[in-house]
């Protein structure tokens, strides 16, 4: 009787262990498979480099390293504040950007560069109010913000920023 119960317990533990292994593998296999075939974050910024002039500035936020490395472009960042778009800082940024555009240097913005990390899309509203954002295209990108085991893939746009004729 005791030997039979021990065998049943051993079988249940074995099945639970196998289930744990299979479920663990399933949770990591999709991100690993995608990353084995594609490197979407670097590919996005390589695409940005192909879409823009060699002297272009790219408005980007926390992926600025990827712009510099994969697109080989300089970066211009909006003021970074998680909770509020400080009007004074935006005016300083606007004067800087206006000067760059008036001198004829091309400026582009990624969707994450103008929309990320701001309440109520204040930065995007600021950019759309003060500049023409001409859609160049969009490309797949993977967000690495959620950690290595979470795969978030989406389309991110690229815009050419131009002065509005007032």
Furnish the topology, listing elements before pairings.
Elements: H1 2-37, H2 40-51, E1 57-59, H3 64-71, E2 74-76, H4 87-102, E3 107-110, H5 111-115, H6 122-130, E4 131-143, E5 152-163
Parallel strand pairs: 1-2, 1-3
Antiparallel strand pairs: 3-5, 4-5
Summarize this structure as a short list of keywords or feature phrases.
single chain; 166 residues; alpha/beta; 5-stranded mixed β-sheet; 6 helices; 21% strand
Mind describing the biggest β-sheet? 5 strands, mixed
Summarize the helix and strand pattern as letters: HHEHEHEHHEE
Integer average pLDDT: 86
Gross morphology: elongated
What integer value in Å does the Rg equal? 24 Å
Q: Number of DSSP helices?
A: 6
Query: Strand percentage, roughly?
Result: 15-25%
User: Helix coverage percent of residues?
Assistant: 40-55%
Q: How do the strands of the widest beta sheet line up side by side?
A: 2-1-3-5-4
Distance between the termini: 91 Å
Low-confidence residue ranges? none
Alpha-beta classification: alpha/beta
DSSP strand count: 5
Protein model, in words:
It is a single chain. The protein has 166 residues and is an alpha/beta fold. Helix content is 52%, strand content 21%. The chain has helices at 2-37, 40-51, 64-71, 87-102, 111-115, 122-130; strands at 57-59, 74-76, 107-110, 131-143, 152-163. The protein has a five-stranded mixed sheet. Helix 2 (40-51) packs across helix 3 (64-71).
């Amino acid at each position: 009787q005791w030997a039979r119960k021990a065998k049943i317990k051993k079988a249940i533990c074995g099945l639970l262990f196998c289930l744990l292994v299979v479920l663990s593998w399933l949770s990591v296999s999709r991100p690993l498979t995608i990353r084995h075939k594609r490197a979407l974050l670097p590919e996005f910024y390589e695409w940005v480099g192909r879409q823009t002039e060699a002297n272009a500035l790219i408005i980007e936020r926390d992926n600025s390293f990827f712009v510099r490395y994969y697109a080989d472009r300089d970066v211009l960042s909006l003021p970074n504040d998680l909770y509020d778009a400080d009007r004074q800082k935006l005016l300083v940024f606007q004067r800087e950007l206006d000067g760059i555009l008036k001198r004829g240097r091309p400026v582009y913005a990624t969707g994450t560069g103008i929309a990320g990390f701001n309440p109520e899309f204040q930065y995007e509203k600021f950019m759309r109010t003060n500049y023409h954002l001409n859609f160049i295209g969009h490309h797949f990108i993977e967000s690495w913000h959620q950690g290595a085991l979470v795969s978030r893939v989406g389309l991110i746009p690229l815009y050419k920023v131009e002065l509005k004729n007032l």
